[in-house]
Amino acid sequence: MVATLISTVQQQSTMTITWESLPEDFILEEEPVQNTAQPLIAGALRESLELIGYIEPTMLIASHLGICATMNGKLVIKAPDWFYVKTVLPLPDATLDRRSYTPNLEGEIPQVVMEFLSETDGKEYSAKPAFPPGKWFFYEQILQVPTYVIFDSADGVLEVHKRSQGQYELQPTDENNRYWIADMGLFLGVWQGEKEGRKGYWLRWWDQAGNLLPWAVELLEQERQRTQQERQRTQQEQQRAEQEWQRAEQERQRAEQERQRAERMAEQLRSLGIFPSD
After folding, report:
1. 6 burial via Cβ count (<10 Å: 0-12, 13-18, 19+)
2. In sequence order, which residues have a C-beta less than 8 Å from that of residue 134 and are 6 or more positions away?
3. CA distance 199 to 158
């Protein structure tokens, strides 16, 4: 099965894009990540979505998975650091893992693609149309991804580019220095802190109300604090109950002392021949 798209780009050159499934024996090239931060940041982005039950079985959220297209008869594969597809078709064999993803053949085009800035200058901004095309050109003109995110984890610089009239346009942040990702219904922004032994800048999600989507370690810390606060409340309740018991006991003792004093006074009066009325 082959899906075909003919697209005319700015240079007025015509390219034929086809969407063809990879042969089963096709060997994918392995590209090592540029640094240890990349898989941690990608994993953290997915983790917070999983924890709120955001991810549906029909979605595809992946990191360093090859996205395939055939450009003028030549196979092009790019493996973004992170990408999101709202709807994909199920694999014929549910027991197998997905080796790659071909849009329009296996499901929708990615709604969001992210690249974490590498040490190779300009790689994420390459608009080279000739084969093999640059990443920017591939996402903008071939895949036509609506939102392209570029993140520099070293300096915490985040860029969100949205496709408008066939080209990417850099988007401004909101008043909270975040970007609204309409296709996901979430805000994306930069957060500074520590996770998994890494201190630095991270990409984080916020919901429409501005609430930060937590990581598992943060939920555990929240639960630990809640348990500790509950234990403190229980201890305070026990202390208050003990204090109430002590006050009640003191009142009982005072009442008993008063009764005994009254009895002694009455006895003294009787010894004097005075009999107090009841």
Report:
1. exposed
2. 123, 125, 126, 127, 128
3. 17
Find out whether 80 and 143 touch, Cβ atoms under 8 Å.
no
Strand partners, 68: 77
pTM score, whole prediction: 0.79
- Would you put residue 197 in left (φ > 0), alpha (ψ -120 to 50) or beta? left
Using CA atoms, how far apart are residues 195 and 202, in angstroms rounded to an integer? Answer: 9
The tens digit of pLDDT for each residue in 135-182 reads: 999 999 999 999 999 999 999 999 999 999 999 999 999 999 999 999
- Least Cα distance to 100 among 40, 26, 35 occurs for 26
Distance CA 143, CA 55 (A): 22
Question: Cα–Cα distance between 256 and 233 in angstroms, integer?
Answer: 34
Give the bridge partners for 82, in sequence order.
114
